[in-house]
Design goal:
The chain is mostly helical. It folds into two domains: 148 residues, no CATH class; 147 residues. 83% of the residues lie in helices and 0% in strands. The two termini are 25 Å apart.
């Protein structure tokens, strides 16, 4: 018997079209209503997905009590993520004016000529020494005229960001509350997402959800943990060497490391300031520490990413940088997730086509 395919009649098409439009409109209105909560919901989802294995381990050690595990994980989330992030934002806001004044004072000082070892550096030594010498040849007034616009822009930008501190802390509070709810009902939420993906795209949809979770954990392990380690180690070096505004520079290093720029620029400026201020011993020690901290990008991050997901490192890095440029900070996670799912689904589709060709040639 031939299989009959149920094709909707012409009279049923308007009903189907109206039903689809109603569902789309309902989803759009729901997202519009939830718009103030979406940033906190996205960040809560990313945090819970990244730390879900830790939550299961905590529940196992706490006699299987989910409530106790939720309390422990929420407290750990506050201590490890929320509180340091809040302190970093407060530090940036409090020192906004100090940065501008420090840059102005820096511009009014005279720049000494470069030490002899600078020209001996491989590859960049001669060019760096020439640029340094050109800046040292400028008078105090000329140097002040060049640096002052950048100082004003930096202070204005930082003060502008500080104006949204209240909204930022509100989002942090919502993130903690939603994270606790997701920790408590994580299995139900995951089952719903998998059911929706299965209904939408079959087995491949469910596979896409699994890949998304792996990509989120890979980025959380590789990018965020590396940024925290670099910022902490760099901040310790700045504090020990006596560099001013060490807390502000530590927060700045964390932001730059998250943005895939790294802590190197801040540490290099600290080394230059130490030599400039007449502390060559501390400058040399800080230079060695800068090389150690800067090399963590090439050692720690690949190892952590491989532990989170068995995906090409180039794919993860492209997703992190491209997502950051396209969607802002949340793009750090959205970019790798989209690329990982697209890459895996495309590879599966290509391999299925190759298998069908082999079967047809064999017959």
């Amino acid at each position: 018997m031939e299989n009959k395919v149920n094709v909707p009649s012409f009279r049923e098409l308007p009903r189907i079209l109206l039903a689809v439009l109603f569902i789309v409109a309902a989803i759009a209105v729901s997202l519009w209503i939830l718009r103030p909560f979406l940033p906190a919901l996205i960040w809560s989802t990313l945090l819970v997905v990244s730390t879900w294995p830790l939550m299961r381990a905590a529940q196992k050690r706490l006699w299987g009590k989910r409530g106790l595990a939720v309390i422990v994980m929420t407290s750990a989330l506050l201590l490890v993520v929320i509180v340091p992030l809040a302190l970093a934002v407060l530090t940036l806001a409090e020192h906004a004016g100090d940065v501008g004044e420090w840059l102005k004072t820096f511009a009014q000082a005279s720049v000494p000529p470069p030490p002899g070892w600078v020209e001996g550096l491989p590859l960049i030594g001669p060019k760096l020494a020439a640029e340094w010498q050109a800046i040292a040849a400028l008078g105090a007034d000329e140097l002040h005229a060049r640096v002052t616009p950048y100082a004003k822009d930096a202070a204005r930008w930082t003060l502008g960001k500080a104006g949204t501190v209240a909204a930022f802390f509100l989002h942090l509070l919502l993130t903690v509350i939603i994270s606790a709810m997701l920790y408590y009902k994580g299995e139900e939420a995951a089952t719903g997402v998998r059911a929706f993906a299965r209904r939408l795209a079959g087995p491949r949809g469910e596979q896409a959800v699994t890949l998304a979770g792996q990509a989120i954990r890979a980025v959380a392990l590789g990018v965020v943990v590396t940024a925290v380690v670099q910022a902490v180690l760099g901040g310790i070096g700045l504090a020990v060497a006596g560099v001013p505004l060490a807390s502000f520079l530590t927060a700045l290093m964390f932001v730059l490391a998250i943005a895939q720029i790294g802590a190197g620029p801040v540490l290099v400026l600290a080394v230059a300031w130490l030599y400039w201020s007449g502390s060559p011993v501390w400058g040399t020690a800080m230079l060695v520490w800068t090389l150690i901290v800067g090399s963590l990008d090439n050692i720690l991050r690949p190892l952590l990413i491989k532990r989170g997901a068995d995906l090409p490192l180039v794919l993860i890095f492209a997703g992190v940088i491209g997502g950051l440029l396209a969607f802002g900070l949340v793009g750090l996670f959205v970019g790798p997730v989209v690329l990982a799912v697209a890459y895996t689904q495309l590879a599966a589709w290509v391999s299925e086509g190759a298998g069908e060709r082999e079967d047809s040639s064999a017959t």
